[in-house]
Amino acid sequence: MRRLLLHNLGWKLFSLVVSVVLWFTFVGSPDLVNYVSAPMRLSFERRASREVRVKVQTAQRPPQGYRLRSLEAAPARLAIVGPESRVREVEFVETDPIDLSQALSQQEFRTNVFVRDPLVRLASPAVVTVRLTLEKSSADTGLDGETTVRD
């Protein structure tokens, strides 16, 4: 028993001194002694769900001489879940961007969808099939409306 108490006695005394100094440093500090915690108010919202449309995001432009004729997602609507006030604000979920620069006249892509609001999620994991149709055009314009071109 004596050997157990005296083994590494120097380290034990050193750690005791450091502990006492730290104790008096922080306990003697008026910030910690006089600190009174403020009341905390928590509010919980009801969980809500609803269906919103799927917005297809595109990247790049169609090949030279082609324009985007149609772009549709299947399913066109997906269910989202989250706090009621945040779910009300979400108008759509988005797909990962689809690169149009290498697309053929008609093509299907399978892509993921996401919700921009971090407190709202998809009700179930979803992969969307995006069908696009390109047509020849003299002007190099894209389809207006539902798509966003990111260069």
Widest beta sheet: strand line-up: 3-9-7-5-1-4-8
Number of domains: 2
CATH topology of the largest domain, by name, is RNA Polymerase Alpha Subunit, Chain A, domain 2
Q: Find the CATH superfamily of the largest domain.
A: YbbR-like domain
* Structural category: alpha/beta
Given this structure, which CATH class of the largest domain is correct?
Mainly Beta
Mean pLDDT: 84
Q: What pattern of helices and strands is seen along the backbone?
A: HHHEEEEHEEEEEE
Which regions contain 5 or more consecutive residues with pLDDT less than 50? 144-151
| CATH architecture term of the largest domain | Beta Complex
Q: How many strands, which pairing sense, and closed or not: the largest β-sheet?
A: 7 strands, mixed
Q: Assign a percent range to the helix content.
A: 10-25%
Shape: elongated
Task: Estimate what percentage of residues fall within beta strands.
Answer: 35-45%
- What's the number of extended β-strand segments? 10
Ends: how far apart? 75 Å
Q: Work out the oligomeric state of the chains in this entry.
A: single chain
Rg: 30 Å
Tally the helices: what do you get?
4
What would your notes on this structure say?
- The N and C termini lie far apart (75 Å).
- This protein is of the alpha/beta class and 151 residues long.
- The chain folds into two domains: 2-33; 47-150, YbbR-like domain (RNA Polymerase Alpha Subunit, Chain A, domain 2, Beta Complex), CATH 2.170.120.40.
- The radius of gyration is 30 Å and the shape is elongated.
- Mean pLDDT is 84; it is low at 144-151.
- The chain has four helices and ten strands; from the N terminus they run H-H-H-E-E-E-E-H-E-E-E-E-E-E.
- The strands form two sheets. It has a seven-stranded mixed sheet. The protein has a three-stranded parallel sheet with strand order 6-2-10, with no helix packed on it.
